[in-house]
Amino acid sequence: DSGVTQTPKHLITATGQRVTLRCSPRSGDLSVYWYQQSLDQGLQFLIHYYNGEERAKGNILERFSAQQFPDLHSELNLSSLELGDSALYFCASSVVGSGDTQYFGPGTRLTVL
Amino acid sequence: GQNIDQPTEMTATEGAIVQINCTYQTSGFNGLFWYQQHAGEAPTFLSYNVLDGLEEKGRFSSFLSRSKGYSYLLLKELQMKDSASYLCALSGGGADGLTFGKGTHLIIQP
After folding, report:
1. How distant is the Cα of B30 from the closest Cα of chain A, in angstroms?
2. What is the pLDDT of residue B63?
Protein backbone atom coordinates (compact mmCIF):
# COMPACT_ATOMS: atom_id res chain seq x y z
CA ASP A 1 0.00 0.00 0.00
CA SER A 2 1.63 3.25 -1.21
CA GLY A 3 -0.53 5.53 0.95
CA VAL A 4 -2.03 7.18 -2.15
CA THR A 5 -5.77 6.63 -2.53
CA GLN A 6 -7.92 6.96 -5.64
CA THR A 7 -11.67 6.75 -6.18
CA PRO A 8 -13.56 5.28 -7.84
CA LYS A 9 -11.79 2.03 -8.69
CA HIS A 10 -13.91 1.47 -11.79
CA LEU A 11 -16.00 3.82 -13.87
CA ILE A 12 -18.19 2.93 -16.85
CA THR A 13 -19.78 5.72 -18.83
CA ALA A 14 -20.95 6.68 -22.29
CA THR A 15 -19.39 8.78 -25.02
CA GLY A 16 -19.96 12.50 -24.58
CA GLN A 17 -20.24 12.30 -20.80
CA ARG A 18 -18.11 13.94 -18.12
CA VAL A 19 -16.45 12.21 -15.14
CA THR A 20 -14.34 13.23 -12.15
CA LEU A 21 -11.55 11.10 -10.72
CA ARG A 22 -10.29 11.76 -7.22
CA CYS A 23 -6.86 11.31 -5.64
CA SER A 24 -5.54 11.79 -2.11
CA PRO A 25 -1.74 11.95 -1.82
CA ARG A 26 0.43 10.38 0.86
CA SER A 27 0.51 12.31 4.11
CA GLY A 28 3.10 15.08 3.81
CA ASP A 29 3.40 14.97 0.01
CA LEU A 30 2.79 18.28 -1.74
CA SER A 31 2.98 17.15 -5.36
CA VAL A 32 0.33 15.22 -7.26
CA TYR A 33 0.86 13.87 -10.76
CA TRP A 34 -1.74 12.34 -13.08
CA TYR A 35 -0.91 9.66 -15.65
CA GLN A 36 -2.91 7.79 -18.28
CA GLN A 37 -2.08 4.20 -19.18
CA SER A 38 -3.50 2.62 -22.29
CA LEU A 39 -2.43 -0.62 -23.95
CA ASP A 40 -0.85 1.02 -26.97
CA GLN A 41 0.67 4.15 -25.38
CA GLY A 42 2.01 2.97 -22.04
CA LEU A 43 2.14 5.33 -19.07
CA GLN A 44 1.81 8.95 -20.18
CA PHE A 45 2.24 11.99 -17.93
CA LEU A 46 -0.78 14.29 -18.00
CA ILE A 47 -0.35 17.07 -15.42
CA HIS A 48 1.46 18.01 -12.20
CA TYR A 49 0.18 20.07 -9.27
CA TYR A 50 2.30 21.30 -6.40
CA ASN A 51 0.73 22.69 -3.24
CA GLY A 52 -2.40 23.79 -5.08
CA GLU A 53 -0.71 25.29 -8.13
CA GLU A 54 -0.41 23.80 -11.60
CA ARG A 55 3.28 23.16 -12.30
CA ALA A 56 3.41 21.45 -15.67
CA LYS A 57 1.32 19.86 -18.37
CA GLY A 58 2.26 16.81 -20.35
CA ASN A 59 0.18 15.07 -22.99
CA ILE A 60 -3.12 16.30 -21.62
CA LEU A 61 -6.05 16.94 -23.96
CA GLU A 62 -7.96 20.22 -23.76
CA ARG A 63 -11.05 18.23 -22.78
CA PHE A 64 -9.24 17.20 -19.58
CA SER A 65 -8.54 19.45 -16.61
CA ALA A 66 -7.40 19.03 -13.04
CA GLN A 67 -7.16 20.91 -9.78
CA GLN A 68 -5.58 20.47 -6.37
CA PHE A 69 -7.48 21.63 -3.31
CA PRO A 70 -6.20 23.23 -0.06
CA ASP A 71 -6.26 19.83 1.66
CA LEU A 72 -3.97 18.66 -1.21
CA HIS A 73 -6.36 16.13 -2.70
CA SER A 74 -6.69 16.40 -6.47
CA GLU A 75 -9.39 15.82 -9.02
CA LEU A 76 -9.03 15.04 -12.72
CA ASN A 77 -12.00 16.05 -14.84
CA LEU A 78 -12.55 14.34 -18.18
CA SER A 79 -15.26 15.75 -20.45
CA SER A 80 -16.80 15.01 -23.86
CA LEU A 81 -15.52 11.48 -23.41
CA GLU A 82 -14.54 9.41 -26.44
CA LEU A 83 -14.00 5.67 -26.82
CA GLY A 84 -10.25 6.28 -26.95
CA ASP A 85 -10.27 7.77 -23.46
CA SER A 86 -10.82 4.30 -22.02
CA ALA A 87 -7.70 3.64 -19.96
CA LEU A 88 -6.27 3.28 -16.48
CA TYR A 89 -5.75 6.65 -14.80
CA PHE A 90 -3.16 6.79 -12.05
CA CYS A 91 -2.23 9.55 -9.71
CA ALA A 92 1.11 9.64 -7.98
CA SER A 93 2.43 11.81 -5.19
CA SER A 94 5.87 12.92 -4.12
CA VAL A 95 7.28 15.10 -1.38
CA VAL A 96 8.16 18.04 -3.60
CA GLY A 97 8.72 17.49 -7.30
CA SER A 98 11.01 16.32 -10.06
CA GLY A 99 13.65 13.94 -8.81
CA ASP A 100 11.62 12.78 -5.83
CA THR A 101 10.29 9.24 -5.88
CA GLN A 102 6.69 9.15 -7.04
CA TYR A 103 4.32 6.74 -5.27
CA PHE A 104 1.35 5.60 -7.28
CA GLY A 105 -2.25 5.10 -6.27
CA PRO A 106 -4.23 1.97 -7.26
CA GLY A 107 -5.71 3.68 -10.31
CA THR A 108 -9.17 4.25 -11.76
CA ARG A 109 -10.18 2.07 -14.69
CA LEU A 110 -12.34 4.14 -17.04
CA THR A 111 -14.42 2.41 -19.68
CA VAL A 112 -16.21 4.58 -22.23
CA LEU A 113 -18.94 2.75 -24.16
CA GLY B 1 12.28 15.06 -26.17
CA GLN B 2 13.10 11.79 -24.50
CA ASN B 3 12.99 8.31 -25.98
CA ILE B 4 13.26 5.08 -23.98
CA ASP B 5 13.63 1.56 -25.34
CA GLN B 6 13.11 -1.71 -23.48
CA PRO B 7 12.58 -5.26 -24.72
CA THR B 8 8.87 -6.03 -24.92
CA GLU B 9 8.99 -9.44 -23.27
CA MET B 10 11.48 -11.73 -21.53
CA THR B 11 11.22 -15.21 -20.08
CA ALA B 12 13.30 -16.59 -17.20
CA THR B 13 13.33 -19.57 -14.87
CA GLU B 14 12.45 -19.59 -11.18
CA GLY B 15 15.61 -19.30 -9.06
CA ALA B 16 17.69 -17.85 -11.90
CA ILE B 17 18.98 -14.33 -12.62
CA VAL B 18 17.62 -11.99 -15.29
CA GLN B 19 18.86 -8.64 -16.59
CA ILE B 20 16.37 -6.18 -18.12
CA ASN B 21 17.99 -3.50 -20.26
CA CYS B 22 16.85 0.05 -20.89
CA THR B 23 18.43 2.42 -23.41
CA TYR B 24 17.47 6.04 -23.74
CA GLN B 25 18.05 9.17 -25.78
CA THR B 26 17.66 12.49 -24.01
CA SER B 27 19.25 15.92 -23.87
CA GLY B 28 19.42 15.70 -20.09
CA PHE B 29 17.79 14.15 -17.07
CA ASN B 30 17.98 14.10 -13.29
CA GLY B 31 17.80 10.38 -12.67
CA LEU B 32 16.45 7.04 -13.81
CA PHE B 33 13.74 5.05 -12.02
CA TRP B 34 12.68 1.42 -12.21
CA TYR B 35 9.14 0.45 -11.30
CA GLN B 36 7.42 -2.94 -11.13
CA GLN B 37 3.83 -3.24 -12.30
CA HIS B 38 1.58 -6.29 -12.02
CA ALA B 39 -1.26 -6.37 -14.55
CA GLY B 40 -4.02 -3.91 -13.66
CA GLU B 41 -2.21 -2.68 -10.55
CA ALA B 42 -0.21 0.40 -9.60
CA PRO B 43 3.46 0.73 -10.50
CA THR B 44 5.58 0.21 -7.38
CA PHE B 45 8.97 1.84 -6.87
CA LEU B 46 12.03 -0.41 -7.13
CA SER B 47 15.09 1.79 -7.53
CA TYR B 48 16.47 5.20 -8.46
CA ASN B 49 19.88 5.93 -10.01
CA VAL B 50 21.30 9.42 -10.18
CA LEU B 51 25.01 8.67 -10.45
CA ASP B 52 26.71 6.11 -12.68
CA GLY B 53 27.14 2.74 -11.10
CA LEU B 54 25.30 -0.01 -9.35
CA GLU B 55 22.63 0.39 -6.67
CA GLU B 56 21.82 -2.81 -4.78
CA LYS B 57 18.65 -3.46 -2.84
CA GLY B 58 18.15 -7.05 -1.74
CA ARG B 59 17.37 -9.27 -4.75
CA PHE B 60 17.17 -6.23 -7.05
CA SER B 61 20.06 -4.14 -8.41
CA SER B 62 20.03 -1.32 -10.91
CA PHE B 63 22.89 0.07 -12.97
CA LEU B 64 23.27 3.37 -14.82
CA SER B 65 25.79 4.57 -17.40
CA ARG B 66 25.06 8.12 -18.47
CA SER B 67 27.79 8.16 -21.11
CA LYS B 68 26.32 5.07 -22.77
CA GLY B 69 22.64 6.05 -22.35
CA TYR B 70 22.04 2.71 -20.70
CA SER B 71 20.57 1.19 -17.58
CA TYR B 72 19.70 -2.30 -16.47
CA LEU B 73 17.70 -3.92 -13.71
CA LEU B 74 19.09 -7.18 -12.34
CA LEU B 75 16.77 -9.56 -10.54
CA LYS B 76 18.32 -12.48 -8.62
CA GLU B 77 16.81 -15.66 -7.14
CA LEU B 78 13.73 -15.22 -9.27
CA GLN B 79 10.37 -16.06 -7.73
CA MET B 80 7.06 -16.67 -9.47
CA LYS B 81 5.72 -13.44 -7.97
CA ASP B 82 8.36 -11.52 -9.97
CA SER B 83 6.26 -12.14 -13.10
CA ALA B 84 5.27 -8.55 -13.92
CA SER B 85 6.09 -5.63 -16.16
CA TYR B 86 9.22 -3.63 -15.37
CA LEU B 87 9.17 0.04 -16.33
CA CYS B 88 12.19 2.24 -16.89
CA ALA B 89 11.52 5.97 -16.44
CA LEU B 90 13.49 9.22 -16.69
CA SER B 91 12.93 12.22 -14.44
CA GLY B 92 13.75 15.81 -15.25
CA GLY B 93 15.50 17.00 -18.41
CA GLY B 94 12.83 19.55 -19.18
CA ALA B 95 10.01 17.10 -18.62
CA ASP B 96 8.18 17.59 -15.34
CA GLY B 97 6.55 14.21 -14.94
CA LEU B 98 8.26 10.88 -15.39
CA THR B 99 8.83 9.71 -18.96
CA PHE B 100 8.25 5.97 -19.07
CA GLY B 101 9.38 3.28 -21.47
CA LYS B 102 6.70 0.88 -22.64
CA GLY B 103 7.87 -1.70 -20.12
CA THR B 104 9.29 -5.22 -20.26
CA HIS B 105 6.86 -8.03 -19.52
CA LEU B 106 8.81 -10.65 -17.55
CA ILE B 107 7.47 -14.21 -17.47
CA ILE B 108 8.88 -16.57 -14.83
CA GLN B 109 8.63 -20.28 -15.60
CA PRO B 110 8.93 -23.06 -12.99
Report:
1. 6
2. 98
